[in-house]
Design goal:
The protein is of the alpha+beta class. A 6-stranded mixed β-sheet has the order 2-1-6-5-4-3. It is globular, with a radius of gyration of 12 Å.
Length: 108
């Protein structure tokens, strides 16, 4: 059973998942701090390049299976046109202004 994005506890994470699933790059980048960083499978990546390849150009989609840590840790089924579907983990750091300063993802 999945958790609908609108039911996710953390507002920034809720908006992140909604922006990914809507393929809305403007909404996505508005959720991030100016100096936001990310990692994939434990390696830091260039955020703009990674999100273009892994989310927006390849039609990424997140289906959340469970959340913890106040909604800032997700286990989800992630799929895109490049890799198909896989079980992934997502951890978010949210700044005091409510924007995401870092996210980490990788296979769960």
């Amino acid at each position: 059973m999945t958790i609908a994005p609108a039911k996710l506890r953390d507002p920034a994470v809720r908006a992140f998942v909604a922006a990914v699933n809507a393929h809305d790059q403007d909404a996505f980048f508005s959720l991030l701090t100016e100096d936001a960083t990310m990692s994939d499978d434990g390696s830091d990546r260039d955020l703009a390049d990674w999100t273009d390849r892994e989310i927006f150009s390849s039609h990424g989609h997140i289906e959340v299976r469970r959340e913890s840590d106040g909604g800032r840790f997700l286990v989800a089924d992630y799929r895109n046109d490049t890799w198909g579907e896989m079980r992934t983990a997502w951890r978010f750091t949210v700044s005091e202004d409510g924007r995401i300063s870092r996210f980490e993802t990788g296979q769960a």
